[in-house]
Design goal:
The chain is an alpha+beta fold. It contains four helices and five strands. It has a five-stranded mixed beta barrel. Helix 1 runs parallel beside helix 3. The longest helix has 25 residues. The model has no long low-confidence stretch (mean pLDDT about 80).
């Protein structure tokens, strides 16, 4: 094959890799296709010479790396990434409240199932309305429950056989 044809294939592969890096970030298809096309171009260019093929691959890798560095420092990479990233923040006054990490205070607490727990539902424990799960069983609405374990934000309850005082 001619040098011009191999050069065009290699340039096409580099364009696909750049499209992956700057335009279609995260899709992987253009990047993988670009690498394959570059390798095919190197195959045609080297025409069976392994040393020439390796040297060409190293040179092309350096060109792509330099393009990436230039894109990073000129801000092109950041602008491309902003198109695909979420820029809004969740605010407490809009109702976005993180769960209370201090659920350990409910351990051994008693309350009542507000909804049917099969196995997840809602219960009132020590006066607070909480999302709870059972140990695997079914608990009817209105039954007395007791907190048997707290694992992070997961509150596990069981049916309480004792009378709530």
């Amino acid at each position: 094959m001619s040098f011009g044809f191999a050069f065009i294939i290699i340039i096409l592969g580099i364009i696909l890799i750049c499209a992956e890096l700057f335009l279609l970030t995260g899709t992987t298809v253009p990047g993988v296709a670009g690498v394959i096309v570059v390798l095919i171009g190197i195959w045609f260019y080297a025409d069976g010479d392994l040393g020439l093929g390796a040297l060409t691959f190293v040179c092309i890798t350096l060109v792509v790396a330099v393009l990436c560095v230039i894109a990073y420092f000129t801000g092109h990479l950041g602008r491309a990434w902003k198109r695909f990233s979420l820029r809004t923040e969740q605010q407490n006054d809009e109702g976005y409240v993180a769960p209370d990490p201090e659920y350990k205070k409910y351990l051994n607490g008693r309350g009542e199932a507000l909804t049917v727990l099969r196995p997840a539902g809602t219960a009132v424990i020590d006066g607070d309305r909480l999302d709870v799960v059972t140990e695997g069983g079914y608990i009817k609405q209105g039954d007395a429950v007791r907190v048997v374990s707290v694992e992070g934000v997961r509150i596990v309850v069981a049916k309480d056989e004792e009378e709530i005082v």
